């Protein structure tokens, strides 16, 4: 028969075992609860592979692919590289980007003031195209909405300022005459307006000193004709003209007499307003 002390010891032992089991269960439940509340990617396993996790996933894969397939140009400093030379040496010519990506270069002082050529950026080569009707230097060249190029004014070899204008058709490589400007102009600017017309400003009407013009005119491609518009506040030659996002045109500076002033042309009203002057005369 078991003695009383032995039974007491046995009961105490079972109580201790029960408490130990209960504490183990509570600890297990608390651990599970805490782990469930941790953010994804934490914990011993995620931490041990943190370096791999940081660089894995779709974004990292795309970055690695892009880096592997990138060209050396993306990692080198900006630089100039030589390309094919023009067929003729030129000064005072124009260069116009065409819709097919080629560049049309026209006129200028050279062997032939009437010649024109095309640059192909894919091959880096130049090829001759149709000659202009009239030799020109210091003229304007404007890409129109229909893809043709309007060339106007300038100075021919004989020194008489031109009012004539002509159109280049890239599809045929040929030139056709269009309406003459209201005023002969050497060194004007030409700006394609949002409505498709071309604004021509300033220039000079003779080849000698003086003769700078404040006048301006508009070319209408649908009619092939020119009409006068309001003149600028100041006469300008070899100035700049920039189409702004609101459709107005900013004209600034002049030469040979330097100007710091600038003014704005509003195609809607056909009028000019003064704007702030540049810091330096240019």
Summed up:
By secondary structure, the protein is of the alpha+beta class. It has helices at 4-37, 43-48, 50-55, 58-69; strands at 94-97, 103-106, 116-120, 125-129, 140-143, 149-152, 165-169, 174-178, 189-192, 198-201, 216-220, 225-229, 240-243, 249-252, 262-266, 271-275. Helix content is 21%, strand content 26%.
Description:
- The protein contains four helices and 16 strands.
- By secondary structure, the chain is of the alpha+beta class.
- The chain has a domain at 94-275: Neuraminidase.
- It is elongated and about 130 Å long.
- The termini are far apart.
Which helices and strands appear, and what pairs or packs with what?
Blueprint: H1 4-37, H2 43-48, H3 50-55, H4 58-69, E1 94-97, E2 103-106, E3 116-120, E4 125-129, E5 140-143, E6 149-152, E7 165-169, E8 174-178, E9 189-192, E10 198-201, E11 216-220, E12 225-229, E13 240-243, E14 249-252, E15 262-266, E16 271-275
Antiparallel strand pairs: 1-2, 2-3, 3-4, 5-6, 6-7, 7-8, 9-10, 10-11, 11-12, 13-14, 14-15, 15-16
Main attributes of the structure:
single chain; 282 residues; alpha+beta; Neuraminidase; four-stranded antiparallel β-sheet; 16 strands; 21% helix; elongated
Unreliable stretches? 40-72
Can you give the mean pLDDT? 84
CATH superfamily of the domain at 94-275: Kelch-type beta propeller
Order of helices and strands: HHHHEEEEEEEEEEEEEEEE
Structural class: alpha+beta
Ends distance: 122 Å
* Morphology: elongated
Total number of beta strands = 16
**CATH-assigned fold name of the domain at 94-275:** Neuraminidase
Helix content estimate = 10-25%
By DSSP (H or I, 4+ residues per run), the number of helices equals 4
Strand order within the widest beta sheet: 1-2-3-4
CATH architecture assignment of the domain at 94-275: 6 Propeller
How much strand content do the residues show?
25-35%
Radius of gyration using CA atoms only: 39 Å
- Main sheet makeup: 4 strands, antiparallel
User: Under the CATH scheme, which class of the domain at 94-275?
Assistant: Mainly Beta
């Amino acid at each position: 028969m078991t003695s009383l002390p032995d039974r007491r010891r046995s009961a105490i032992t079972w109580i201790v075992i029960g408490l130990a089991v209960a504490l183990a269960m509570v600890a297990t439940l608390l651990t599970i609860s805490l782990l469930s509340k941790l953010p994804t990617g934490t914990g011993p396993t995620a931490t041990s592979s943190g370096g791999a996790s940081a660089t894995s996933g779709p974004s990292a894969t795309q970055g690695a692919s892009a880096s592997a397939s990138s060209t050396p140009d993306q990692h080198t400093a900006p630089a100039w590289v030589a390309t094919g030379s023009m067929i003729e040496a030129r000064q005072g010519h124009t260069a116009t980007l065409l819709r097919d990506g080629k560049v049309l270069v026209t006129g200028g002082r050279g062997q032939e003031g009437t010649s024109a050529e095309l640059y192909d950026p894919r091959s880096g080569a130049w090829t001759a195209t149709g000659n202009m009707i009239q030799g020109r230097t210091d003229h304007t060249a404007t890409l129109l909405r229909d893809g043709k190029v309007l060339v106007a004014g300038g100075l021919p070899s004989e020194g008489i300022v031109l009012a004539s204008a002509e159109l280049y058709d890239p599809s045929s490589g040929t030139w056709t005459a269009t309406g003459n400007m209201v005023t002969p102009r050497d060194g004007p600017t030409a700006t394609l307006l949002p409505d498709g017309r071309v604004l021509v400003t300033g220039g000079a009407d003779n080849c000698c000193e003086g003769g700078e013009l404040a006048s301006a005119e508009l070319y209408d491609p649908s009619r092939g004709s020119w009409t006068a518009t309001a003149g600028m506040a100041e006469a300008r030659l070899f100035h700049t003209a920039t189409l702004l996002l609101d459709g107005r045109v900013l004209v600034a500076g002049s030469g040979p007499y330097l100007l710091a002033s600038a003014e704005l042309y509003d195609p809607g009203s056909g009028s000019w307003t003064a704007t702030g002057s540049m810091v330096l005369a240019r």
